[in-house]
Amino acid sequence: MVLNMAEVLLVYEVRPESVDIPPKKLEKAIREGLDPMFKMQNNPEEKPLFFGMVGIVGQFIIPEEDGAQDKLEEFLNSLEEVSSIQMTFVTRL
User: Which alpha helices (H) appear in the chain, and where do they start and end?
Assistant: First the structure.
């Protein structure tokens, strides 16, 4: 009998590096480099931040395995379009 590995839903507020980076560009940068082991929701919520800057609230489904969350966070933080990320919610699916 083969058991499917559990999954985890993580919600991150992703802030752009500058006001010149619109939410759609931020989403595109994430999707283009996202590891196939991770899934990102369609049409992430746009979140007004400050001084005209708009971030996104992205929902990601990752496998429940050691290091998966760290790998996702390292990827998000490595993007030149991203200033910072903040996890706002996590739950096991």
Answer: 23-33, 68-78
Neighbours of 82 (CB within 10 A): 20
Residues 6+ apart with CB under 8 A from 23: 16, 44, 46, 54, 55, 56
For the domain with range 7-92, which CATH number is right: 2.60.40.10, 3.30.40.10, 3.30.70.60, 3.30.750.200?
A: 3.30.70.60
pTM (two decimals): 0.91
- Tens of pLDDT, residue by residue over 29-75, are 999 999 999 999 999 999 999 888 999 999 999 999 999 999 999 99
11 is written with which tokens?
A: 């919600």
Asked whether 17 and 83 are in contact (CB, 8 A), the reply is yes
Q: Which residues pair with 93 in a beta bridge?
A: none
Cα-Cα-Cα-Cα dihedral sign, residues 70, 76, 80, 85: negative
